[in-house]
Design goal:
heterodimer; A: about 375 residues; alpha+beta; Gyrase A, domain 2; Alpha-Beta Plaits; Elongation Factor Tu (Ef-tu), domain 3; six-stranded mixed sheet; 19 strands; B: about 130 residues; six-stranded antiparallel sheet; 4 helices; globular
């Protein structure tokens, strides 16, 4: 009890405990890692829908006449292209081109941007952005003002629609709307971290318990289940999505991580730009690759990767892919070798195990 | 339930069943619960010898890798063939069908130092 007492708790903490979730310390937060089991939860999201408490995620808000200028300076994607109600994935970089964080940028209004950031990076992101703010706008660290519930999976629209007047059928992927769920304010975004259709719903913390219960009730007939961070990780791995601290961190650039698509050189100056331009001109030294284990054994985070018997890189994330029935991973390899079809070895407990590089993503949902 | 009286237990959550000179080794129900969905079991080669407390292999769940420590000293003469094809059996029947290895015991008296079912349950409870 004393250990758990010092951890941060989301408004749904008691709900998870009542559901019998196994709780873990996730970056200082007391979070559910699993309820019914990671494989069951994973497959539920792929075939029906899952409900996630992701209230630990941080929210930063940038408001003011020149909010766009600040957003465009501290992020890699081009926020000028965003319409009100649109979201994009973006990189928050240091001057040296490495990641401070990877984030979602929501354009609420011309003078208001809402950033969803990683839980463990929230304070660092806030200080980074505020420290570079030389425009007429404010930066607010508003993590405590929002809870976030994600509903993900093919049945997500059918479960959520009866609870809101927002027309979900007309909401496109990576768009959002400020509306209501059960009559209470909610920011509903068609975004997610699972490779499935679904929504991330921001609500006031004191409303989170009621929204969770209503969604669970609404999804009963569709097979909706609560899903913990364990399956959240296997789902995002199958979908080939980066996780801060694994595929990306302060030493990795977006180009190396295969995230060149969120770097827009056709906009004004932004943090990291000159380093990325140089990297692009000179060529990359290393690149992120997908891998599939061929031999018996599971490549895990941090394991060494060898090419022709020589150490060449490391596994960033690895494990079983429950929906694909194989063991997969992502790894960094020298750029000149980083193409699908390369035979590699992953050092599993000091033994080389055969693997082969394959394209990312590993899983793509049927449209 | 649930910890059978005929098994002896370690604080690392292995069990051993002693029958004559043979020790059958497995992981406990508590261990499989803590691990969650088990997806891979790495077992030793036949003929390998181990001291009590040495790692004889590993059990992997979706999330984690966990070492298996031999409760006893001896030589491996059989590994459970079931686990290569169906590691999930370790979740379903850890004290029975999903045993890990059989060893020829070198020091039968070692077993006296292991926990009884009641002691193991008390250890878990504490």
């Amino acid at each position: 009890m004393s250990e758990a007492a010092s951890l941060l708790k989301t408004p749904l903490n008691e709900t998870h405990r009542a559901l019998g979730a196994r709780m873990v310390d996730f970056g200082g937060w007391d979070m559910p890692v699993q309820y019914s089991g990671i494989i069951d939860e994973h497959n539920t999201v792929r075939t029906s829908a899952g409900l996630f408490d992701v209230s630990h995620m941080g929210e930063l808000e940038i408001r003011g006449r020149q909010a766009l200028e600040l957003v465009n300076y501290v992020t890699t994607n081009n926020a000028t292209k965003l319409a009100v109600g649109q979201v994009h994935y973006s990189g928050l970089l240091y001057e040296h081109g490495g990641f401070v964080d990877d984030i979602l940028v929501h354009k609420v209004a011309d003078d208001h941007y809402f950033l969803c950031v990683n839980a463990g990076n929230q304070q660092k992101d806030f200080e980074h952005i505020a420290g570079h703010n030389r425009w007429e706008c404010s930066v607010e660290n508003n993590g405590a003002k929002y809870a976030q519930i994600a509903i993900q999976g093919p049945k997500a629209p059918a479960v959520l629609q009866p609870l809101t007047r927002t027309d979900l059928s007309s909401m496109k992927y990576y768009w959002f709307a400020d509306g209501e769920v059960s009559g209470e304010w909610a920011r509903i975004a068609r975004t997610g971290y699972t490779g499935e259709d679904g929504f991330e719903i921001y609500v006031a913390p004191e409303q989170a318990g009621a929204r969770w219960q209503e969604l669970m009730e609404a999804g009963r007939g569709e097979g909706l289940k609560p899903v913990g961070l364990g399956a959240r990780n296997t789902l995002r791995l199958e979908a080939g999505m980066a996780l801060y601290g694994h595929e990306i961190d302060a030493t990795i650039t977006p180009l190396e991580a295969g995230l060149g698509w969120i770097v827009k050189f056709d906009k004004g100056d932004f943090l990291g730009r000159s380093v990325l331009e140089k990297q692009k001109a000179e060529g990359l030294k290393r690149k992120l690759c997908g891998l599939e284990m061929r031999g018996r054994g599971i490549g895990r985070d941090g394991y060494e990767v060898r090419v022709a018997g020589t150490p060449a890189g490391w596994v960033t994330s690895g494990g079983p892919a429950p929906a694909l029935n194989k063991n997969i991973g992502m790894c960094y390899l020298p750029a000149e070798k980083a193409a699908p079809g390369l035979e590699i070895e992953v050092m599993v407990r000091n033994q080389p195990v055969e693997a082969v590089t394959i394209p990312i993503p590993f899983y793509k949902r049927a449209k | 339930m649930k910890y059978p009286d005929n098994l002896r237990y370690t604080k690392e959550h292995e069990w051993v069943l002693v029958e004559g000179e043979t020790g059958t080794i497995g992981i406990t129900d508590h261990a499989q619960q803590e691990l969650g969905d088990i997806v891979y079991v790495d077992l030793p080669k036949l003929g390998a010898t181990y001291e009590a407390g040495q790692s004889i292999g590993s059990v992997e769940s979706v999330k984690a890798v966990s070492d298996i420590y031999s409760p006893v000293t001896g030589e491996v003469f059989e590994v459970n063939p079931l686990l290569a094809e169906a590691p999930e059996k370790l979740n379903a029947d850890p004290h029975g069908e999903a045993w890990l290895v059989k060893m020829k015991l070198a020091k039968a008296s070692e077993v006296d130092g292991l926990l009884s079912a009641a002691e193991y349950e008390a250890f878990l409870g504490g």
